[in-house]
Specification:
With 243 residues, the chain is of the alpha+beta class. It has helices at 20-27, 78-92, 115-131, 178-186, 194-201, 209-219, 230-242, and strands spanning 3-7, 34-38, 40-46, 52-57, 64-70, 106-112, 163-169. The strands form two sheets. A five-stranded mixed beta sheet has the order 2-5-1-7-6. A two-stranded antiparallel sheet has the order 3-4. A hairpin with a 5-residue loop joins strand 3 (40-46) and strand 4 (52-57).
């Protein structure tokens, strides 16, 4: 059975956090990544990112675009799925204990898309989720299954995949306004705008991106003049003209 990781943020592009490059190189087939429709939002304020917002999943209409990356190895048994889930969580939380798949701020959930996957893995995955002490949170139910619809390709195409794993994080109680999200990046000078701009560069998009960008452009923070993201800035400005 084919498995993929639904990625909505820095797991796709971060090369500074220990283990993420190795995880992508050894467990994922990056060359076959594909954009998919997903219910993603900038909805979690992150202290480690200068109190700016990071991406979250919510049980909602798939208004954004995430990236689905196939795993290199196929899933034949629950042990195979457990290994992929543990590797995903280790990439998210490098200091976590071996075999962990969650903590108080997030956890790995599974979405089983084919009849074969549901028949062979659903109960076993739920048992494992409970046995390791993981707790349902955000869009992960208490049985470890993701409470979102099965994604489709960004152009509506059907995905040739059986199982999806994703990390869910606890969103803020109230979805922040577009202005609040933009202001958080405008009001910092620690380089944390990188999260938004790298997401855009790598095709991870929300329906609010251009509103966020319009607010940033009007405020003209000092980081807007750096060359590091000139290509992304050019792309966003072009999209604004076409909107």
């Amino acid at each position: 059975m084919k498995c993929g990781i639904l990625i909505i943020g820095s797991l796709l592009w971060d090369s500074e956090t220990d283990g993420r490059v190795n995880w992508r190189n050894t467990r994922l087939d990056i060359g076959r990544r594909m954009p998919v429709k997903a219910p993603i939002y900038y909805g979690r304020r992150s202290r480690s990112r200068g109190n700016t917002f990071t991406m979250t999943l919510r049980s909602d209409d798939p208004s954004g675009v995430a990236i689905l990356v196939p795993c290199q190895l196929e899933i034949e048994t629950i042990d195979d799925l457990v290994v992929e889930a543990g590797a995903l969580w280790k990439a998210e939380a490098p200091t976590s204990a071996p075999g962990a798949i969650g903590s108080g701020w997030g956890c790995v959930g599974a979405l089983l898309g084919s009849d074969k996957a549901r028949k062979l893995l659903a109960a076993h995955w739920s048992n494992h989720f409970r046995e390791v002490g993981a707790k349902g949170l955000s869009i992960v139910k208490p049985d470890g299954h993701l409470d979102i619809g099965w994604p489709s390709g960004a152009a509506g195409e059907v995905l040739d995949i059986d199982i999806i794993l994703a990390t869910a994080t606890v969103p803020d109680a109230r979805l922040p306004t577009v202005d609040a999200v933009a202001d958080a990046w405008i009001d910092q000078d620690g380089g944390h705008e990188r999260y938004f701009l790298e997401n855009v560069r790598h095709g991870i998009r929300t329906e609010a991106d251009l509103e966020i960008w319009s607010h940033v452009e009007r405020a003209a923070p000092c980081w807007l003049t750096t060359d590091t993201y000139s290509d992304v800035i050019t792309m966003l400005r072009s999209e604004m003209l076409e909107a």
